[in-house]
Amino acid sequence: QAQLVESGGGLVQAGGSLRLSCAASGRTFSTYAMGWFRQAPGKEREFVAAISLIDGTRYADSVKGRFTISRDNAKNTVYLQMNSLKPEDTAVYYCAARRGTVYGGPYDYTYWGQGTQVTVSS
C-alpha cells in the first residue's frame, strides 16, 4: 500500500530555516508529480510547491525565492527547503502525489501524508 510520511517540522524563529522530507513507500513515485501543500487553522489547504519530470517545478507566489522543492528518486523522497520563514508560513504541511503534471489543486492529488506541523514565531 502506497504511503507518504512527512518529517522535519518544528518550531523556528522568523528568518530561520527548516527542511521537510517526505518518504514514499509501497510504490515507486519517480514518475509522479510530488507536491507540498499547507493548511493553517481556519483556512483551506493551499498549494505550496510541486515537482515532476514533465513540468519541472512550480511554486506558490507566496514562497517563491524562499522555498525550494527537490526530489531524490533513488531514495523515493521529496524535500522542501524553507528559508527566510515568516509567521504566516505557520501551518500543517502535507506531502502529496499525483500522476503527471505539477499543475492542479489538492483534489487532483491521489496520495497524501499525515502532515507535519511548522510553527514560525515572530
Detailed description of the structure:
0% of the residues lie in helices and 53% in strands. The chain is an all-beta fold and 122 residues long. Strands 2, 4, 5, 6, 9, 10 and 11 form a seven-stranded mixed sheet that branches. A four-stranded antiparallel sheet has the order 1-3-8-7, with no helix packed on it. A hairpin with a 6-residue loop joins strand 4 and strand 5 (46-52). It is globular, with a radius of gyration of 13 Å. 35% of the residues are buried. The mean pLDDT is 95.
Written as H for each helix and E for each strand, in order along the chain, the element string is: EEEEEEEEEEE
Q: Distance between termini?
A: 40 Å
Count every beta strand, where a strand is a DSSP E run of 2 or more residues.
Answer: 11
Query: Into which percent range does the helicity of residues fall?
Result: under 10%
- In terms of quaternary structure, what is this? single chain
Note the main sheet.
7 strands, mixed
How large is the share of residues in beta strands? over 45%
Q: What's the alpha carbon Rg, rounded to whole Å?
A: 13 Å
Supply the number of helical segments: 0
What overall form do the CA principal axes indicate? globular
